[in-house]
Amino acid sequence: MPADRSTFSLTRPAVLAALAEYDAIGQAAFLQKYGFKPARTYRLWHDGKAYDSKAIAGAAFGYLPGNPPPLRYDEFSGGQVYVVPVMEKLGFSFQPPQGEAPKRNPLWTRDQIILALDLYVKHGGRDPGAGHPDVVEVSALLRQMATEEGLDTYRNPSGVIMKMMNFRSVDPAFTSKGGKGLKGASELDKAVWAEFYGKPQELAVAAEAIRAGAVANMDAAALDDVQGYSVKEGKVSYRLHKTLERNRKVVAVKKAAVLQAHGKLECEGCGFDFAATYGPRGYGYIEAHHTSFVHAMQPGDETTPDDLALLCANCHRMVHKAKPWLTIAELRALVG
């Protein structure tokens, strides 16, 4: 049995065996047998037919030497990290066969452009490379956002990089040195640039609100594609936190209100400002503390901005270090 229960252990013969079983029993029976849902974005193409890529990967694991148990749905995430590169390395494709007209990308929307601009600013106008986790995450998020809206789009990581590089043509930090950037900047690109130029904190918070709104509408399969690559804790813990993740929009609203009132995001305990200390890496970042007991909330209870306090990581940990939790006033008194 393979020591590493991951998709990176897969072999081409194992995948071919899973494809053969899929053909033999049909999609519905195959998905039911292995406990997967239909693919929403990433369809594997083989011999002119499309397959549910994550289900194929999970089932293929059971065809490895020694016939280990197939990978369960909750053992790995699909998408750009754990399925696409593995299958492509084994010689499989995610592109429709020749003869089927590829669907053209729809125009970039304002929300999509804001996400790309946020990435551009946080990387200081540099090209981080299509394989960078930040780029992969934005690409997956854009695909899922389009799927939710009933659109066909293929915002792959390379496409995200191209959009980022379009901003160089309107960035004085680049053009003042003789740079030109890519020539594809649209009028909407320029308008979004003008709206947020010199306002990296506001841009970061706007991007966070867009992410939060998209996440709130996603099912578990979509969340796996968008967030799975960065999950460090166990799947059980991840699922327990999913509901709180869907409340992130109220955090963005809180941050936006504080920014409008004070022009910066400071810890309400000690006054620490992540952006002032860490520059672009810290734009828009600060933790949100629920001043009420989250575990005591009842079904239907909603978190409002007034229920949140913005704290740095140190102060947040000190609040929760022992029961009873510190109030914000008590925290301030300790910090002095």
Average residue pLDDT: 79
Approximate helicity band? 40-55%
- Rg from Cα: 23 Å
Number of strands: 4
- First-to-last CA distance: 58 Å
- The string of secondary-structure elements, in order, is HHEEHHHHHHHHHHHHHEEHH
Tertiary shape: globular
Give a quick account of the main beta sheet: strands, pairing sense, barrel closure.
2 strands, antiparallel
Going by helix content, strand content and strand pairing, the class is: mainly alpha
DSSP summary: helix tally: 17
Strand content: under 5%
Widest sheet: strand ordering? 1-2
Model regions low in confidence, pLDDT < 50 over at least 5 residues: 218-246
Question: What would your notes on this structure say?
Answer:
The protein is mainly α. It contains 17 helices and four strands. The protein has a two-stranded antiparallel sheet. A two-stranded antiparallel ribbon has the order 3-4. Strand 1 and strand 2 form a beta hairpin. Helix 1 (about 10-25) packs across helix 2 (about 25-35), helix 6 (about 110-120) crosses helix 10 (about 185-195) and helix 11 runs antiparallel to helix 14 (about 250-260). The longest helix is centred in the middle third of the chain and has 17 residues, at about 200-215. The protein is globular. The model is unreliable at about 220-245 (pLDDT under 50).
